[in-house]
Design goal:
The structure holds 2 protein chains of 2 kinds. By secondary structure, chain A is mainly α. Chain A has helices spanning 5-24, 28-52, 59-89, and one strand spanning 2-3.
Chain lengths: 101, 179
Amino acid sequence: MIHSAPPMVVVGLLFGIGLYGVLARRNAVLVLIGVELMLAAAGLLFVTVGSLTSDAMRTGQVMTIFVITIAAAEIAVALGVILAVFRARGNVDMAQPGESE
Amino acid sequence: MTTYDVLFTIAGAISVASGLLAVSTKHLVHSALWLIVSLAALSGCYLVLGAEFVALVQLLVYVGAVVILVLFALMLTRAPIGRSLEHDTSLMQRAAALVVGAATAALLATVLISAFGNDKVRVNGGTTHALATRLFGSWVWPFELLSALLLVALVAALALARLPISRGAGHDAVQGAAK
């Protein structure tokens, strides 16, 4: 038996923390860490709702596995983009303007 | 408070606290390391909720692979070791980000609690056997599609790594590669 409120509070807090990380960081890799925290909150919500309701399809857990897989693919491509930007600009500072023509 | 409540609160508190440190620490590398703690504690949350397979996948994929990728990216972008203020935005923007983040957290928690209530419910995690039956039964086509997605991501990452980019002439090099 578990109360359904604590997981929901953790979901909200993790998502808010991730959003803060995306908005408050200038280094592109640190922005990605914020995105990862938001994806983790989404996964926790899937598992929580799947565990608190009776669902024969196991949608909550299956969807979380899918989210984790997509997040892994996303971060590989995103880090490739960040490294390409670093090679072109010499930094990954998102507050600096892009290349001037 | 039941045992599940206590265990979940402990794991959730560790996850939230280390997530907070991950987005606020001034050391670049510490940020990735706190992310490990946060995601590992989150897999503890999954265990409490009865999703042991998801917890193991979380540990293997996130803590084992994703964070290592992040650490490599920090290394390859010549991240400064030690305390540095250069990777945070201005104080004004951080205050605004704090307000937005806190408001989103409060909104999400309120909406979710009002939607699901605070009842005591039985944890219905199911067994890994049932999950596997579903994953390779009802969900097999999305699952196969995901393997194609991983292949596409692999090829895309390789293609990005092979882009002929040199510093300063980045724009021209990208255009040259496109021709």
